[in-house]
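Hello Y.,

Per our agreement to keep a running log of every chain we model this quarter, I'm adding this entry. I've kept the format consistent with earlier entries: sequence first, then predicted structure.
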Amino acid sequence: METPKNPMIDNAIKLLGEAFLPGASLLMDGKIVEGSAHLIAGTWAKAAVGPVGLALVIANSYSESVTGKNLLKHLSKVAQDVQAGPTRQEGHGHE
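Predicted structure for the entry above:
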């Protein structure tokens, strides 16, 4: 009998795995090439840039695993939203 999937628990396990091994969440998804690339990039980033570089690689790996989008796609979406400006819903704006 298969246990039911709980996305919140799965994501917590992925995040915990990323703390020990960059790319772990992608490896857990079965994406061996992408996970291995993040492992190599994380090792390089930690050596070259330090903890900030490693954190960016970990965040990118986790984001790609959970949402299917890397950080660059998320940030470009945010930039587009900012450029579009605030939207006003009817009845909720200041007069």
